[in-house]
Structure formats: C-alpha cells, structure tokens
Fold these 2 entries.
Entry 1:
Amino acid sequence: MAAPFDRVRAYVDQKREGEASFGDVVALAEITADSMQAFFASIDTAIYKELRDIADYITRMRSEIALLQAGELQADRLPRAGEHLGAIVVATEEATNAIMECAEDILAAAGADDATFRSVVNDKVMAIFEACSFQDLTGQRIARVIETLEHIEKRVGRFAAAVNPGGETEAVAEDARERRARELLLNGPQDRGVAIAQDDIDALMAK
Amino acid sequence: MALDHAMPVLIVDDYKTMLRIIRNLLKQIGFEDVDEAADGSEALGKMRDRRYGLVISDWNMEPMTGIELLREVRADEKLNRTPFIMVTAESKTENVIAAKKAGVNNYIVKPFNADTLKAKINAVFGE
C-alpha cells in the first residue's frame, strides 16, 4: 500500500531545497492524484475481496445450518429420545419392583406347608421370567436413543468442521452442574476395565 | 463397638428401588430396624433426631451427596462416631481415596451382593 505514495515522497524530497513554482504544485497535484487513484483502487479490490469472502462464508453457513436440521432435532428426534429414556426408567423400575415383590412373596411363604410353598415358588418364578422381558424392549429403546445421538454427532461434527476448518477449539465455560460434578467427584459408573474392583477398594481401605 | 443387630440402621439413596434392595439385604442379614432417606440433607436431619448405629449411603444424590453427608457427620461432634459405609456406583480410585480421607469406615461398589454387604458391616464392627 506504501508504493502509490512513494512517487509523491520522492518528488517532495527532490523539490525540498528550492522554491516551488506553480508548475511544481501542478506536477505534485498530478502525482498525488495518480497515487491516490492507485491507492483507492487497491482498497476497493481488498474490500471487495473481503466482502466477497464474507458473503461466501454466510452462504456456506446457511447451507450448513440447514443441514443441521435443528428444527427436526428439536421438534422430533430429541423429544422422542427423551420419551424413550423416560420409558426405559419406568420399565426398569416396574420390572425391578415386580421381581422384588416376587422375591419377597417367596421369602414370606417360607413358613408355609410344602405344597403351598411349591405353588408360590412356581407362580412367582414364572412372574420373574415375565418381568425380565423388559430387557428386550429397553434394549430396542436404547438403540433408538443411540441412533439419535449418532445423528446429532454427525451433523454437529460437520458443522464444526465447516465453521472452524482448522479444527481449533475454544474452551467452553464450565457450568454450575459440571463444576459441582467435578468438585464432588460425581464421576458416575465407570466402564469395565476402568472401574476399580471391590478387591482393589478393600486394599485401598486397608492401607 | 460391637455389632448389634437390633441397632437402627439408616440407609440413604435417591433410588427407591435401591433402598428396597438394601433394606431386604439388611433384613436377610438380620437387621430389622431400618430407616430410609432420599439424600444427604434428609439423612442428616434424621440423624439429628435419632441415634443410628450405622449409616449406609449412596454417593451421587441431590441436593446433598453422600460425600457431603459424610463430611457433615464427621464434623459434628454428636454424630462423628457413627459408622458410615458408602455403597455407590462411583468406582474411581479418587472416589475411594476421597471417602477414606473424609472418614468412611468402608466402601462398597455397586452392584454388590448380600455377602459383600455382610462382610463389610462385620469388618466395620470388627467381627
């Protein structure tokens, strides 16, 4: 950008020592006008390029946002995933209670005569088998929830790549719930291989 | 402290099912006097109203967690000698270390069975 004004600077330096004539002033005005024209031309090109890039970026973002299908996620997939999870909680709770009731009934029948006890055990064991069928349904529901999470992961990943092609990530501020979980060590159940075994816990407690 | 099966036991868990499981297991072991609380703050209130011989608590509860309950209990001179067993799905080494540092008497990781519960209770009472 300095180049257009170099001619002006050179002319002024050349004329600095002597008196300036009208012709010098006109010549300086012409050189300045030429220089300014070149300068503004370069600015126009740079601004145009910037604006063009911004417009392209906005267009690309619009199509990426459309691909996110946020409306569909919010209106359909996420509520359905929530319903599935709610149903899983209810189904497992009902099944557990049913199984426990059977177990309690069997325990309570321990003092009864043999025939009655056998009958109670048979009935309750059958009821336990029936209650265990919850696993099939909850398994299917969990599969649907996983499907939704994968759907979201795919779209968010694509969006993140489009917004930030370099893959640089900004630290996300920790919210109150996350801070509580960190401070109170609310890690939740761990996967096999990561979870510490009861024997190891006993060893730690014994130290 | 000797193990007395007639002593009142307080079990603390935010899952009713878990409370029921632990209550039944305690019954099998021989404890009949069992009270329940759904989180640490409810448990603390009950402990201030009644003297319990043993507290069996989950870790992850709201609003007051098991580790907060344990720290409150150990900081209270009227309650600080109450035996406290943590029964939890929190199975990271840092959890066990934090609980031990806070003064837990024993630590059981879920899922567990009656034998484990019985063994840990016996260990707490030196049986």
Entry 2:
Amino acid sequence: MLAEFGNLALVLATVFAALMAVLGFLVNAENSHWSTSLRRATQLQVLFTFSAFLILISLLVISDFSVAYVVQHSNLRSPLFYKVTAAWGAHEGSLLMWNAVLAFWALSLFKLKNVPALLIDKSLAIQGLLLFGFLLFTTLTSNPFVRLEEIPLNGMDLNPVLQDPAMAIHPPMLYLGYVGFSIPFSLVVAMLWTGDMQQATLRWIRPWVVVPWIFLTLGISLGSWWAYYELGWGGWWFWDPVENASLMPWIAGTALLHSLAATEKRGLFLHWTLLLAVMAFAFSVLGSFLVRSGVLISVHSFASDPSRGLFILALFALFVGGALTLYAAKTPIGFTSSGFKAVSRESVLLLNNLLLLVMLLLVMLGTLYPLVLEALGLGKISVGPPYFDYVMLYVSLPLLFFLAVGQRLNWKGLGKYANELKKSLLLSLVLASILTLLFGVVLKSFSFLTIVSVAFSIWIIFSALQVILKYKLEKKSLGFSQFGMFVAHIGVAVFALGVALSNQLANVDTKAVVLGQTVEVGGYQFDFTSLEQDKELNYQLTRAEFVVSKNLQTVTTLNSEKRFYPGRQTSTTEAGIHGGFIRDLYVTLGEPLPTAIEGQQAWSVQYQVRPFIRWIWLGTIFMALGGLIAIFDKRYRTKTLKKGSRADV
Amino acid sequence: MSKRIIVWLPLLVLIALAILFYKGLYLDTNKVPSPFIDKKAPSLILPDLLNPQQQVNLADWKGQVVLLNVWATWCSGCLLEHPVLNAIAKENLAPIIGLNYKDNSQKAKEWLQKSGNPFTAIPNDLSGEVAINWGVYGAPETFIIDKQGVIRYKFIAPISLDDWKNKLRPLVIQLQGERL
Amino acid sequence: MSKQLNIILLSLVICLCSVTILALDTTEFSDAKQQARYQALTNELRCLVCQNESIAGSSSELAQDLRAQVAEQIKTGKSDAEIRTYMTERYGDFILYRPLNAGKTRLLWLAPILLLLLFCVIFISIVNARSKAIIEDEEVV
C-alpha cells in the first residue's frame, strides 16, 4: 500500500511542478495574485516530492520486498543506517533524491530577500520546469516504487563498497552542490527573461552560489577520502570519467564565485558571469548524464540503459539549450563597464577565470576525447591519469603563483599601496623559499616541480597570514568576506602541499609475507602478528594484524580486513590506516598466494607510508570553511526590504 | 559587433556536444576493436587438447575460411554459446578451431564429451601466451580468418543464433566467394 | 530476446571484475631501476577486462598475464617503448592510459599550450581595453 502512496506522491509532485511552471509564466508585474498561487503550488510541490522520498526510505526501513528497488538494494540483515542510505545507493533512488534536493532549493528561493519579487517568481517557474523534467524522467523510466509479482524472502543488499559512513553521506552532499547550482541558473535565466539585470541582484544571490559550492567541495572531498581508505590502494583521485564529471561543475562554480565578485562590486564581466551561472548547472546535469547513460566507461556508473540516457540527454539539451539561446539573444552586450589597471584585483580575477576555464576545458577534453574519436570512427583510445597529471601542472602552477599575489591586490589598481605591497610580498616569498629549501634539505629527495609548488603554496599561506596579522595587530576588523577568502586560499595551499608532498615522499612496497614476518618501509617496521577469521552481521571476514614500530618503539597496531558479503557475493578490502598530521601508515591485506614460504601460507600485503596525505582533505575543509565564513558577511544580511519585494510567504 | 557572434558560441558548443552524446549512446563503449582486423593472423601452433602429441597449426587451413573461437569452461558465456557453436558445426560451412584458453584440460574434455564437440581442432593454450599474441582479452571471442590467412572480423561476446545468421554467416559466405 | 541475453551476459562478464577486489602484485626485481620501470609501466597500461583499472591494480587473469609479460620483457632488456609497442600491436591504443603524442592524439598534448597561449592573448587584449577605459574616464573628468 505504501508503495502506491509513493507513486501517488510522485505523480502529484510532477503535476505541481508543471503547475509551478505554468503559474510562473502567467505572473507579471501587474497581476500579483498569480504569484500567491505560484508560491502555494511550490510549497505543495515540495511537500509531495519530500513525501515520495520519505516513503522510499520507509519502504527500505520496513524491508518491503514487494518493491523491486528494496529487493535490489536492501537486506534484512543490513544495519538500519544502510537501509536508509540505500535510498540513494542506486539509480532510481538517487534520482528521487535529486528531485527532493531540487525541490528543497526551490523552497530556499523564498528566503532570497531584497530581490524583485517578479524575478523570484520567474525563477520558481524555471525551477518548476526543471522539477517537471526530472520528475517525468523518474516516473517514466526510473520509478523506484515498481512492485514485483513474486515477493522474495530477502533482498540482495546494498553494494558493499557503499556500506560506509563517508560513502553514505557523499551523494547527498554532492547533490546539494550539483543541484544547488540550479538556483543561480534559474535566477540568471529569470534575469535574462525579464531583462531585469541589476548589479544588486547579483550580490544577493551570492550566498546561493557559495553554499552549493561548499557542499560540492565537501562532497567531492568525501568521495576522494572514501576512495583513499575504502578501495585499499591509497590513491585519492583516479581521473575516472565520473570523478571528472563531478570536478567540472566544481571548476565552473569556483570560476563563478570569483567572477561574481568582480560583477557585483565593479559591474565587470557581466555576460561572462551570467554564462558561468548557466554553465555550473549545465555541467551538473552533464555529469548526471555521463553517470547514468553509460556513454563513458567508468567504475561509478549506474546500470546503463540507452533510453534513460536519451531522456537525460533531451533534458540537458532542452534546459541548457534554452538557457543559452536566451543568453545569446538577450545578454546585455553594450553594458558599460568600468576600467581597471593591469595590476589590480579585477585583472587577477580575470586571470583566475581564464586559468580555471583552461582547467575546465582540459578536463573536458581529456574526458570526452575518446568518445569523440569513437563517434567519428577513428578508433578507441584511453586518456588516463598520466595525461591529466601532466596537463594539470600547466594550470595549477600559474594558479598558485597568481593566487599568492592576487589575493593581496586592491580593486581598480594599487596606487600608493604599490611599494608597501611589493615589499610585503617579497618578504613572504623569501621566507617561503627558505622554508622550502630547509624542508628539501631535511627530506633530501625533491624534484624541481615539487620545490616550486611547495614554495608557492607556503607563499600563499604567508601572504594571507600577513594581512590577517596586520589587521589583528592594528585591531581592525577584516570583514567576514575578506577573512573567508583568505581562509579558503590557505585551504588551496594546504591542499596543494598535500598533493605535492604525498606524491613526492610516498613509500610503497608490496611483499609476499607470512605470519610473523617483519617488513621495513619508509623507516617503519611492520610486524605481521596475527591472522583470524570472523563473522559480522552481514559479512564474513579475514583479519590481519600488524604491529608497527619505529626505532624499536611501537607506534600503532593496524588491522586490515578482507570481507565477503554473501548477499551480493562480493568481497571488499578494508585497509588498516593510522592517520597523522605528518604522515599516514597504510596496510592492505591482499590475497593468499599460491606459493608457500618455509611451509607457511604466504599473503600479498601492501605497506605504505604516505607523508602529508591528510593535508589534501584538510585543505578542502579549509576551502569550505572559507566559503562558510564569507556568507556571514554583513553585506548579505541586510534586513531592510526594498520596495516591491515581499516578505516570506 | 563580434560580441554578438561570440555570445552564440556556447549554444553551438552545446549542440555539438549533444550530437556527440547522442551518437555516443549507441556506441558499444565496452568492446575494444581488435588491431588485427585486415592483418595477417599471428602464428598459432599448439598441442591439441584431445591429442596432445599432435600439434595444431592454423597455417594448415590456408585456402579455407576459418572460425577461431576462444573458449574455456571457466567462462560462463562460452558455456551458453556452446549449443550455437554445435549448430554452426552441423552446417558444415567452415571449420571451427576452438582455442582452449587457460583452461583445466580435464574439465574441458569432460565438457566436450557431455555437450558435444563442434571444433575441428582444439589448440590448447595453457599459459595464455598465444591468446595474448592474438589480443584476446576475454572469452568467448570469435575471429573470422579468410583464405589468405588474414583476420577479417572479430566478434566479442557469446554468439547467438541471430548473430550467426545475420552477421557471421553472411560474412563467411562472402569470404568463401573471394578468390585465393 | 537473444540480444537481451547478450547484454545480460556481457554485463555478467564485465561484472566479474569489481573495484573491490584488489590486486597486490608482489613481483620483485633485483634492480631498483627495473622495479620502478615495472611499476610505472604496469600503472600506465589499461586492463581490458576491468576497463577502469590499470593492469597493476586489476586482479583479472589477463592483467596477471600481462604483468608477467611486462616483467619478463623488462628482464630481457626491452625498452619501455618496445613494451608499449608490443601491447598496442595486440590490443590497440586503448591499452595506453598515456595517449601517444602523435597522430590523432597529438592534439591532447598540444591542448594545454595552445589554450594558455590563446587565453594569454585574450587576457592582454581585455586588460588593454580596460586600462584605456580608465584613462578615458579620467579625461572626461
């Protein structure tokens, strides 16, 4: 019965989404009574979408095996937590969550004050159109409430690799980000539609760019963190097409954050900012297409089906095509913008956007090139990590360099400040270089590229700290927006340090070992002390214990497990990790080997010492934190209501 | 003026992408085409599974169109394909050479005894080295080799009767019509 | 019907390799340089069975065989280029995670430089125009 209510909620949600779009089209400056109905329709739409999603969760919790989705992704023995998270563990459920998040963000538009009400109404219309498209897709091709004729006694369980806390919250975070970009998208389309393009509006929507960006940053970071400790080989980014698909909207969103600053404060790059707002969401939908259609070979793909692919492709082409047509026809070309000097905040923001665009294009090129060649009948090729690692250097080094300088520049130009800034930057550069060289001497092995990126990163941190300290000493307030910016930039530097150092200094060794054997890697002794079989709620496991010591002192005990999940007949590897600020110790139990050593069963075991690897995720946390600080700036919190705008409904 | 044109550029890019993805939807992205198509077949000389003293040499079939099927009992697709191979063998259109790929010889013999033997000869590739030389990456795979000993076609996946009737059979007949 | 069966079978074959089964390769060389070359090469060759893994990380049979080939060829003194050629002759360019800097994939390697040059030109022209706008503003004042 519950599944039927789910279906009903889905259908009603679709109907009200259509109603939102229609009412939104009818609204105009003269008759505001449509506006009231529109907002009621939106509230009901959100209610029904949420209901559908909650019903799916309930079905999973009560293990209603008459529903196909529940059978495929849940099991009686699963812990409650993973019964709930199975709601977004596969294609149909995650699509329903996409809709729920889309509805949530539509509702958040009610909170956007100080923006002309007509603009909000038109944005709600666009949001309704998006919801209608995606809900139609859900209902017609991917309905999670489909019932089975024969009811099995138990389900197949959620994919074991997804049975992990980080993986469980990774998709909601990611979706809050991806789908959050629908708000700048809708608002910009509404601005183009109504022709009402005030600089002030762009300022008010800034938090609606920053918050999705924070979620996306954390979501991608969580995914990478998960890959690091769950997949068991210590990698954190694989340049897999689906990872790239999540990176592209992030790069577009990051570019948007920066160009928006120039547009809202100086009226510059307006049409570029509008385009980026469309692009950030376009890349989100594109990512969803790439994951769900199977056009690219990827580990993360949901089961592919051409009819589904075709449907999302149609949605993508219609939504983005419509927005871009509107953009091409109505973007203000003759918009007079103010001038700026070659060395000014405006020019570095421009540089930042151009470099991020190059980065975006390179990721896109590498990801899609094999598809292009194949579609043209020119054969099949692969573009993998060696390519991306190489080309990213071209963008990341200039980005780091200009970031260290750029974050210190003023709007319009330097003026009297020039000399002071030159001295200050030179000081931090010299300090950063000395520190890098000392570091290099202590650690001995350093490549030229590592030295350069480490020096630039430390320089960024120093250059940011100089300002923060100066304000502290002079007892002046820096402002949340500025402070947030510096924190986020320190995050970029910490991230870059993590990437460069963990890459350069890693010690990895894979050995065939027997119980009791000690292996030395990177100055640490790993002693294989025990091996046992065990059983948990929904899996069986083999656990190996390693005692790690350095200079005869025990550092830690690591457990690595091989798990077998009977529900899905698959096994997973759990690495044993000892995290640290300076280094991670990482042990992975492999397979029993056919060869025996001195009559004992040998196992393959991978030992890793990875210095500074945690800084990668620490950096992303700082970036997100910076964003969070920035939205508390008082410029976005003015409570005064302008004429024509409306209070909360 | 030029800006009026530039603002249409994103739309053009989108249209190009949409066309690309539309084409991409109907490509089989998981199959890797063989670089051997229209190239001379690599040498294949291996002991016969059923008669280990005897060497099977593909070159002995020169002048005939040959199907080379890569199979093993550990490959579930191969087992499903087996009845189709039996049917093909019954037609007596072309010899099927069954390259037994990294298999347990005993199990392979038992399987053939139980389910019938469609193969004219069964080169036994225990180490998988010959298969690597042929660019085999999974089983079942079926090569069609023409009279000159040139690989003309590679089918990756279990052959269904439809595949045989609509794709492979017409090609074999066409190749048989070619002059030596 | 049979086509559907085909798809199911194919996906079965593909599902045989799962990201979760980790290959830990214990091949050892007496020479550290050879070990490093081996690691680098096996990480840059794509496994055709589990198409999202390098042959270094894949636990499939084919990956094991190809790893053994790489090890043997390194030991017999073959160069990296020769080993790559050996692989592409058999499996095509698909096996290379590092696309060739030649022919149809040259554009990939030229892209970063071309894009950076193009964007430099764009940057300079915009900054030029904008800094002129300041001077005009001041003249008007």
